[in-house]
């Protein structure tokens, strides 16, 4: 799905597929069938954008198998789906991140991301000249020492070189967006600006999950302006609201409904407080208010007294779209929220024959 910025530029809107183990191309095609049927029933659009997640072993196989990439592109076309971004955020085959998962101090993360870039250039629509791969915010802040920092610097230098090679070989560019998140090296705007002072800002940027931005407790306009002032590109933005509790002690019962042992949700407070799991926060009750790194569906409200950080994402998107050029080319959004973007500087679906 494509929307038009108020000054005429195209903004691609994609919807991420659910994270399910996809061991081969047959599994991916089955996910595409489920996606197309579900989302097309909600949106009046001939072409739908999808952000695929391909686990590392499948990505490695597709990166060296041109016939398989051709088949995947054909399967996308047959279902009226287009891909301009791939997600490299999860690494584990089942989508769950745990201990031992490689961060950006490891060559394994580099190899995976470059595999995704090589795949993406063959999946892009014919009229698209570039796409993007999203990845983690470098690594977990806990345990990020000088040795990891130096290793990361070397690996990111190789990433820039690998992306340049992909562009030279194919004539299409792929940029990589690092996603800031609570508990990661990249989180608030200061950490992002500092890290990118040493990085290739032409090929590397950030992929902002606006629920994560809410969990920094920074003003979203100030956050975006700081990135812009540091020359950091917002390659993709995920339209999402985080869970919020103004008085956590009075909302314990409601908060317990969001505890997920398989996917822990971090909790942050305005004074830089951080707990990596909502279950732990509910035991200790750090001084609030809280914001919980948990996406609240855009078409619903959490149970009282909880609220969603809806105004954060709305303010951020309005600011990104307020300039002469869109502040990002790619949006990731739930299907229920796509048409809400019209009043924030983006028009309804456009004629897909128009050039990118």
Structural account:
The protein is α/β, with parallel strands linked by helices and 356 residues long. It has a single domain (2-240, 310-347), classed as Divalent-metal-dependent TIM barrel enzymes (TIM Barrel, Alpha-Beta Barrel), CATH 3.20.20. The protein is built from 11 helices and 16 strands. It has helices spanning 25-40, 56-63, 66-78, 107-123, 146-170, 189-196, 210-215, 220-229, 252-256, 278-284, 310-320, and strands at residues 2-5, 10-16, 48-53, 81-82, 85-87, 130-136, 173-179, 204-209, 234-238, 241-245, 267-268, 274-275, 290-296, 307-308, 330-332, 346-347. It has an 8-stranded parallel beta barrel, surrounded by 4 helices. Strands 12-11-13-10-14 form a 5-stranded antiparallel beta sheet. Helix 2 (56-63) packs across helix 4, helix 4 (107-123) packs parallel to helix 5 (146-170) and helix 6 packs parallel to helix 8. It is globular. The two termini are 12 Å apart. The relative contact order is 0.14. One of its GO terms (molecular function) is isomerase activity.
């Amino acid at each position: 799905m494509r929307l038009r910025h108020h000054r005429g530029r195209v903004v691609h809107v994609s919807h991420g597929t659910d994270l399910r183990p996809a061991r081969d191309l047959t599994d991916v095609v089955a996910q595409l069938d489920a996606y197309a049927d579900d989302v097309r029933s909600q949106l009046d659009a001939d072409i739908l954008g999808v952000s695929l997640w391909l686990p590392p072993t499948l990505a490695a196989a597709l990166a060296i198998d041109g016939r398989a990439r051709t088949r995947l592109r054909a399967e996308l076309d047959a279902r009226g789906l287009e891909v301009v971004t791939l997600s490299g955020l999860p690494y584990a085959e089942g989508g769950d991140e745990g201990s031992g998962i490689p961060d950006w101090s490891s060559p394994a993360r580099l190899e995976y991301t470059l595999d995704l870039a090589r795949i993406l250039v063959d999946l892009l629509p014919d009229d698209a000249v570039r796409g993007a791969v999203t990845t983690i915010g470098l690594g977990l802040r806990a345990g990020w020492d000088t040795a990891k920092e130096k290793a990361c610097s070397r690996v990111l230098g190789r990433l820039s070189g690998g992306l340049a090679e992909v562009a030279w070989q194919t004539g299409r560019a792929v940029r990589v967006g690092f996603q800031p998140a609570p508990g990661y090296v990249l989180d608030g705007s200061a950490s992002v600006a500092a890290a990118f002072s040493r990085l290739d800002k032409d090929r590397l940027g950030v992929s902002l999950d606006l629920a994560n931005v809410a969990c920094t407790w920074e003003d979203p306009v100030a956050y975006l302006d700081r990135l812009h002032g540091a020359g950091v590109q917002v390659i993709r933005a995920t339209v999402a609201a985080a869970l919020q509790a103004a008085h956590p002690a009075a909302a314990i019962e409601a908060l317990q409904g969001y505890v997920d042992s398989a996917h822990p949700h971090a909790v942050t407070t305005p004074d830089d407080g951080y707990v990596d799991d909502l279950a732990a926060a509910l035991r200790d009750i750090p001084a609030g208010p809280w914001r919980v790194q948990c996406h609240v569906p855009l078409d619903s409200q959490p149970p009282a007294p909880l609220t969603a950080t809806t105004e954060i994402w709305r303010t951020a998107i309005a600011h990104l779209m307020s300039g002469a050029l869109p502040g990002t080319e790619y949006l990731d959004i739930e299907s229920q929220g796509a048409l809400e973007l019209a009043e924030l500087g983006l028009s309804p679906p456009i004629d897909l024959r128009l050039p990118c």
